[in-house]
């Protein structure tokens, strides 16, 4: 009787376990089915994975557009083991900038560690205060604190160009603009910007900038040259930081942006953040200045219109010392339209956020852990927003209220949301001031066609794919 009872109990126990197992199996199958249905199309698989990675790595910008045409508005690329989910339609961009289920800091933290050796702990402690300080210090009401000094720095650098010459336009901009802006933000000659020591710093910074994207993703031992330049720059900033601490002015208005950065960091990762600030302030603004000047000089009607406008604000002898204040720049709206149009055409390849909770986009569920990617470069080629999108048409910006610092709808070059680019107003100031001064002082002739943009990089604005020589002489 007892044994029969035990046997019955064991059978029902087994039955119970079996039914639980079946239920679990059924649930798993269902999950797989719904998962399959709802995740965005994924470009992966064994052979295609390698092929996708290689194609993606060789010309990532083109790859995004081809994948969109083939797979639709939302798709995932598995590249170098990471899931990157792209959204390409404007109606989905609000989720990217505003959803609480996506995160900026989680998206960039690893890249910040790889490029500037800022630990996760230090990053979370300091990132938001640094961002807020930069946003406040570089806000429009404070730009006049930079402009007089920036003007003097630019004038001095332009003296080195002499009365005439031939040069690659990109190099010419680099050598004139980079030391001037670094002096302006960090303090005069504090970052080796005097003529003798500048070349070494320039060499390391250019190497750091060129492979920044790879450095942000790969271990350093795979990028020996890049790593050498990174550590050279970090150790340079190590000594700059300790010197700067001794020279700190007490008055708030006399401090450079760099000194405000040191105050905010209070000893945490100071050299590391200084390197990131140097990179963020140069990596996009310099190529955009190149494109602005190249587009203007190569287009006779635009060039003439810009020069007419400049003539109405500055005296017409380029080699005389003229003054140009921040308020004068407001009298140059056409030049500003040219800059904004150049930024539209050469906007950053992608920006990203990390998905923290499964995210519904269209009929798909994007799994947590994915990187959500938005290509500003392609968003700026939406013909509904920007008719004839590939053409350089400064006139399209007449519709924007430039005086009130409003951009055109659909223009996203500076990102958006909580961590939008804090340097955007300073960027527009420096590019406009530099372009006004150099165009007023020199007459330019292009010796090469305007090059195409390099398809290699996704992070930041595009660099020219080939040299572009110009001849310049005093007006
Ligand atoms: C035309 C020039 C520039 C362009 C197109 C540009 C664009 C951008 C973009 C797209 C982002 C990412 C925003 C996001 O993900 O939503 C960014 C971030 C940033 N930009 Fe700019 N930028 C420019 C110039 C500058 C300048 C001149 C500075 C400094 C003086 C600067 C400082 C920064 C910093 C510090 C960040 C990181 C913000 C953070 O981590 O919180 N940028 N920029």
TrEMBL record:
Q: Name one Pfam family in it.
A: p450
State whether keyword rRNA-binding applies.
no
Detail which positions bind heme. 421
GO terms of biological process kind = bile acid biosynthetic process; cholesterol homeostasis
Residues recorded as binding substrate, renumbered to this chain, are 114, 284
* A GO cellular-component term linked to this record: endoplasmic reticulum membrane
Name the principal localization, coarsely classed: endoplasmic reticulum
Please give the cofactor(s) recorded in the UniProt entry for this protein. heme
Q: Which UniProt keywords apply?
A: Endoplasmic reticulum, Heme, Iron, Lipid metabolism, Membrane, Metal-binding, Oxidoreductase, Steroid metabolism, Transmembrane, Transmembrane helix
MF term (GO), any: oxysterol 7-alpha-hydroxylase activity
From the Swiss-Prot or TrEMBL record, state where the protein is found. Answer: Endoplasmic reticulum membrane
Entry keyword Translocase: no
Q: Where are the transmembrane segments?
A: 6-29
The metabolic or biological pathway listed in the UniProt record of this protein is: Lipid metabolism; bile acid biosynthesis
The protein's matches in InterPro entries, at most eight in alphabetical order, are given as: CYP450_sterol_14alpha_dmase, Cyt_P450, Cyt_P450_CYP7A1-type, Cyt_P450_E_grp-IV, Cyt_P450_sf
The family note in this entry says: Belongs to the cytochrome P450 family.
Protein name (database record): Cytochrome P450
């Amino acid at each position: 009787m007892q044994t029969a009872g035990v046997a019955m109990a064991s059978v029902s126990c087994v039955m119970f376990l079996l039914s639980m197992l079946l239920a679990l199996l059924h649930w798993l199958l269902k999950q797989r089915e719904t998962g399959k249905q709802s995740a965005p199309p994924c470009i992966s698989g064994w052979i295609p994975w390698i092929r996708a990675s290689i194609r993606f790595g060789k010309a990532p910008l083109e790859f995004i557009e081809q994948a969109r045409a083939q797979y639709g508005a939302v798709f995932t690329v598995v590249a170098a083991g990471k899931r990157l989910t792209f959204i390409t339609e404007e109606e989905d961009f609000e989720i990217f900038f505003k959803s609480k289920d996506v995160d900026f800091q989680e998206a960039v933290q690893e890249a910040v560690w790889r490029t500037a050796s800022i630990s996760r702990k230090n990053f979370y402690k300091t990132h938001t205060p640094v961002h807020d300080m930069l946003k406040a210090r570089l806000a429009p009401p404070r730009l006049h604190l930079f402009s007089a000094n920036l003007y003097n720095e630019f004038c001095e650098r332009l003296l080195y160009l002499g009365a005439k010459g031939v040069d690659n336009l990109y190099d010419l901009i680099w050598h004139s603009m980079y030391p001037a802006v670094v002096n302006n933000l960090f303090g005069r000659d504090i970052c080796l910007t005097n003529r003798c020591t500048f070349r070494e710093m320039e060499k390391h910074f250019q190497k750091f900038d060129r492979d920044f994207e790879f450095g942000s993703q790969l271990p350093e031992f795979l990028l020996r040259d890049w790593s050498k330049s990174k550590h050279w720059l970090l150790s340079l900033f190590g000594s700059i930081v300790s010197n700067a601490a001794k020279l700190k002015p007490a008055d708030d208005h006399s401090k450079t942006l760099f000194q405000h950065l040191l105050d905010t960091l209070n000893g945490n990762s100071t050299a590391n953040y200084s390197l990131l600030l140097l990179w963020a302030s140069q990596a996009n603004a310099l190529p955009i200045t190149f494109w602005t000047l190249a587009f203007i000089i190569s287009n006779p009607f635009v060039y003439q219109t810009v020069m007419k406008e400049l003539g109405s604000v500055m005296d017409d002898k380029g080699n005389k010392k003229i003054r140009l204040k921040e308020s004068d720049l407001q009298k140059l709206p056409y030049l500003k339209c040219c800059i904004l149009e150049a930024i539209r055409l050469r906007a950053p390849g992608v920006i990203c956020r990390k998905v923290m909770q499964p995210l519904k986009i269209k009929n798909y569920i994007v799994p947590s852990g994915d990187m959500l990617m938005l290509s500003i470069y392609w968003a700026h080629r939406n013909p509904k927003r920007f008719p004839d999108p590939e053409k350089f048409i400064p006139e399209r910006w007449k519709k924007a209220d430039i005086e009130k610092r409003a951009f055109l709808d659909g223009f996203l070059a500076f990102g958006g949301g909580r961590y939008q680019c804090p340097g955007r107003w300073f960027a527009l100031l420096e590019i406009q001031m530099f372009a006004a001064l150099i165009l007023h002082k020199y007459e330019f002739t292009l010796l090469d066609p305007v090059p195409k943009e390099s398809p290699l990089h996704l992070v930041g604005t595009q660099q020219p794919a080939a040299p572009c020589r110009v001849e310049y002489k005093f007006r």
